[in-house]
Specification:
six-stranded parallel β-sheet, single chain, binds D-glutamic acid, about 20% strand, four-stranded parallel β-sheet, about 45% helix, about 270 residues, 10 strands
Length: about 270
């Protein structure tokens, strides 16, 4: 069990930011990543569709021998975490990208926390309900920013057009007075610098990727599930292969990625 890979999934290649953080935190672990590019974006899908895609992908990762499941997508974490947890045998830990961020806010005395993410993530109000439960002293203000994931996926993250879109969203009155901002979409670490420079130093940006990786490390350690093989292996699957995904994937993972198509929906 110890030497099996960690299974990670997302709607597309955005979750590779989480896979990258996992590789940094756990360099000896093997990873198996699945991006459901055939159904991208999840942010515009119904709750039921997101749940059913997530369950099918989880079955695939379990069949391939995953020793843990990481839902590296906020839209799927918002709508499918409970269903995935129910499907997966108890001895296999399941992680979402929301809880570690919420935990990191527990100790704050007060503050206004902004949350930006896809329409699916924001309409679930999962961040607002979990944060106010964990720390009632905090005020949470959520804003859907649906264009950002598309823009980043297209490779637009450091151009003037992307700066204009980012500024338009971040100037929304919903984010007035915030002191923390949660990047509630696994694509957004690629525009973290632009977001930080928009707010100068007044707002602390919370990026879930590193917090999730630390949580995975802690739990695997506690459950005695860390590998002892000394040999890590990475596999990257997508449900629909295109050249453009192949090109963008390297940016998200910050390393060379060989995408392999798996026909999950074409059988
Ligand atoms: N990676 C997804 C998330 O974190 C965003 C992209 C999508 O809409 O599928 O919510």
């Amino acid at each position: 069990m110890k030497n099996r890979p960690i299974g990670v999934f997302d709607s597309g290649i955005g979750g590779l930011t989480v896979a990258h953080a996992l590789r940094e935190a756990l360099p000896n672990e093997s990873l198996m990543y699945l991006g459901d590019t055939a159904h991208l974006p999840y942010g515009d899908k119904s709750d039921d569709a997101i749940r059913s895609f997530s369950l099918r992908i989880t079955k695939f990762l379990l069949e391939k021998g995953a020793k843990a499941i990481v839902i590296a997508c906020n839209s799927a974490s918002s709508h499918a975490f409970d269903a995935v947890r129910e499907l997966v045998p108890d001895e296999i830990p399941v992680f979402n990208v929301i809880d570690p961020v919420v935990e990191s806010l527990r100790g704050l005395e007060k503050g206004i926390v902004g949350v930006i993410g896809t329409s699916a993530t924001i309409r679930s109000h999962m961040y607002r309900s979990k944060i106010t439960l964990a720390n009632p002293a905090l005020i949470v203000s959520e804003l859907p920013t649906p264009l950002l994931a598309h823009m980043i996926e297209e490779g637009f993250f450091t151009r003037s057009v992307s700066q204009a879109v980012i500024s338009e969203y971040l100037n929304d009155p919903a984010l007035d007075g915030i002191d923390h901002l949660i990047l509630a979409c696994t694509h957004y670490p690629l525009i973290q610098d632009q977001i930080q420079s928009h707010f100068q130093k007044e707002v602390k940006i919370l990026n879930s990727a590193e917090l999730v990786a630390l949580e995975v490390k802690e739990v695997l350690e506690k459950k005695n599930l860390l590998t002892n093989s000394g040999e890590s292996n990475y596999q990257f699957f997508v449900t629909d292969f295109t050249e453009s995904f192949d090109k963008s994937a390297d940016h998200f993972f910050q390393g060379r990625v060989e995408l392999e198509e798996v026909k999950l929906w074409k059988e």
